[in-house]
Amino acid sequence: MKITIIGTGYVGLFVGCGFSELGYDVICVDKVPEKIADLNAGKVILFEDGLDELFRKNVASGKLKFTVDTKYGVESADFIIITVGTPLHSVTKEANVKYLYAAIEEIAPYLSGYTVIANKSTVPVGTGDKLVEIIKTINPAANFDVISMPEFLREGLAIHDFFHPDRVVVGTDSMRAQDAVKKLFSPFQDKPNILFVERRSAELIKYASNAFLAVKVHYINEIADFCEKVGANVYDVAKGVGLDSRIGDKFLNPGPGYGGSCFPKDTNALVHMARHVNVNLSLVEATIAGNDARKSKMATRISDAIKDIENPKIAVWGLAFKNGTDDVRESPAIQIVQKLVSHGIKITAYDPKAMETAHSILGNSIAYADSAVDAAKDTDALAILTEWPDFKDIPLAKLQMRHKRIVDLRHMVDAHVAMNNGFDYEGIGK
Ligand code: NAD
Prior knowledge:
This protein is α/β, with parallel strands linked by helices. About 40% of the residues lie in helices and about 15% in strands. The chain is globular. Bound molecules: nicotinamide-adenine-dinucleotide.
């Protein structure tokens, strides 16, 4: 079975590397020539733990190829996986499917033999029907099935999640496509649980999952606010709540609000879809509003920590939206930094992996340091915004700050250790 991936961004590259590691011949296609040139020159264009090794091994064995030539990628493919972006429309807040439609128009003329077209991009319910229509109009003789195969990997753990998925959701009524999917997943050592449903249900499962997780994150953030007022400790509360197997302990970490390329986009798109058919998803709407407000609130918490200081300077640890990735899309850290900068506060930041991606958004509005310790030098407060585990191991005694103040939005520093080292410490939810 030959696999072609259309769209070599985060998801496309993880999935391409993963399937080539399982022994498939994989061609990854992308529209951006510079990206393909970098990949063909051996440069892994993004950071993810374990990706570099998979990439090098499978490029060297000839199992993994990169091209801008859609025709070349599609002609020989038995299984086409679409992983193009579906960003939020800036005004309407609906998922913008124009890149997906364009990709389908580009591949349609070159389909030959029976081909499964698996859409992994997160798309509004009913998009699969439209993709079928487009292909039939352009290439009436094509022999194909369009299936929905949403992606659930977590950035930062993407390689692990590829090889050990909790579940694989596949939306199709076609028995032939179902057989192809079963064959596709047959080389997995850890056999995934494949759930076959109708295409529209599969499309909605992705949104319903992400919205549920976003609600869970926002819920524990609100409980953290409550803990602060009543003298409880949110970390103990979360532990106690999470021990209930009906709830589970995942996504109960309070912080500066959720971000990333999926939750903000998918919650907004879901609400937009529901409104369109007069359904009120009040829980999701409240989560979106609460999460947006939380980032401003956290920026204020940081600026309040230095409000008595003239010309304050803040050190920021962490810019990625979570640890384990260089992805800064919708990162709460970036949004908080932007807010602080807009108030005239000087910032020096450090992130182990996301300096380049952050620079593409923040430019020279802040200074960048080569290490966490350097970032803190001569600053008046340290704000910890991403939960990189390395931050836990930095001895506070090494920090040469003007004022010893820490605002820890990720529970990285032990409050007692901080205070014993002479720091004013402010965390979340206790
Ligand atoms: P991305 O922006 O990193 O990558 C998309 C890529 O598609 C880009 O490189 C772009 O150049 C390419 N592209 C666009 N049109 C193309 C075309 N016609 N032909 C070939 N290439 C084309 O996006 P991403 O983060 O990889 O997400 C892709 C999709 O997967 C989105 O719908 C997203 O919601 C969904 N998703 C993402 C994640 C995640 O963790 N990033 C997880 C699950 C689902």
